[in-house]
Amino acid sequence: MFQIRKIVNQQLQLQIRYASKLFKNSTEAVADIKDGSTLICGGFGICGIAENLFEALAQKGTKNLTTVSVDIGIPGIGLGKLVDNKQVTKAITSYLGENKIAGQQFYQGDLELELCPQGTVVERVRAGGAGIPAFYTSTGVGTVLEHGGFPSKFSHDVLAHHVEKYLPVRETREFNGKKYLLEEGIRGDYAFVKAWKGDTEGNLVFRWTSQNMNTDAAKAAKITIAEVEELVEPGQIPPDQIHLPGIYVQRIVKGEKYIDRIYKRGGESETGPAQDIHRDVIARRAAKEFRDGMYANLGVGLPTQAANFVPNDIHVVLQAENGLLGAGPFPSRDKEDQDLINPGKEPITCVPGGSTFSSSESFAMIRGHHIDLTILGALQVSENGDLANWINPGKMVNGMGGAMDLVGGCGRVVVAMHHTARFDAPKILKKCTLPVTGAGVVDLIITEIAVFKVRKNQPLLLIEKAPNVTVEFIQSRTEAVFEVSNSLTDMLQ
Predict the structure, then answer these.
(1) Contacts for 124 with CB less than 8 Å, ≥ 6 apart
(2) What is the pLDDT of residues 310-335, one digit of tens each?
(3) Catalytic residue numbers, as ranges
(4) d(Cα 40, Cα 66) in Å, to the nearest integer?
(5) How many CB atoms lie under 10 A from the CB of residue 69?
(6) I need a labelling partner for 218 at 20 to 30 A (CA). Which of 126, 205, 287, 349 fits?
(7) Could you give the CA distance from residue 262 to residue 23 in angstroms, rounded to a whole number?
(8) How many angstroms separate the CA atoms of 274 and 254, rounded?
(9) Whole-number CA gyration radius for the chain
């Protein structure tokens, strides 16, 4: 009996595979998605999201979904719409960021949240699609990912605020004297992917950074549904221009409508152009760390501004972990393209000689130590180089994004941040009080008043200070113990 069922199931799978992949509209394409399904979602912010498929699933009302994505979406758009409707009960993701609704649902017990570094999420999906059950990575060693204990599910009793579930302790193993964490591959029931162009065989082409996790997501689901802006007949896409072969796509639909959206503009805060006299000071000094021929990654926010001060006599290639090598300056408004964004979801340009690729390719560059330098912001840094920049307990959860991958894989880690927090609270501490992003990973700390070199098993070394600022003033704003260099100079600008 079992053998008969197995043969029937195999025949049904063959019928599905060889049936026409083309669906009339998004509603028909998602019609059989059942409650409790696991949905792997391509896209990054509003770039490369299957907005018509998400809209159709929101209208259908499918519930108790588990979603897998690099971020949890933006309210009212794409995956964010499913979260708004409370159709998602568990999310495996690296970043909540701007989605305050998801954060509220998490703390109210409506949403289980399995936070995972961006590169690890992507690699877990890639591994699942490649038939690899698990793999080892150094990302997250020394953090809550290794030790567990971070809440992943709260009870619905808001007053008691009881934790029902925690992130599990990871299995570890050493290779060549270095510790690694075991991460399991992920497979889904369905995947939503968005491409610029596709043919009726399911072959897909992506524009700029819209490839992101789309190609990896498509390979890791039983049924992948592709939404395309332009649908053509087989043969109209040259074989050597296909980014994703049709074998990974079971259904394809032409998107019904699209709205050009620019979520955030470069150099602007949520309330308008950033006004901070210290940002340029910090960014200008951070740019002094660039070297000719270097490949570098700049974190979201203040570190991104270092690109404005690259010396004219050196060549630096900037990598964006959402899938771009050769990130250029912010475009004028008439040249903005929502398919070409940086990790902060801001429109950017691509310099001549640049290239775009998938998220898994991007993080392979990072984990494989091909990136020479990363400049990141921080909430706290300890005197031994621990970095904390992904969550501030008591406030809305953000998630680690790609920071854990960057601090574990890049050649040098430079922190560029304001010296103190609100009310002049020190951010350079003896020991981080927040959950760390990486242990002992920071090489240099740059603030608006000082530059510290981090030394192993020694106090911090003050090597530069702002003009007209005394060492005593710096000490009054710094909890960590530091020594003053014999060659202390004014900050390079």
Answers:
(1) 116, 183, 184, 185, 186
(2) 988 999 999 999 999 999 999 999 99
(3) 321
(4) 8
(5) 27
(6) 349
(7) 29
(8) 39
(9) 23
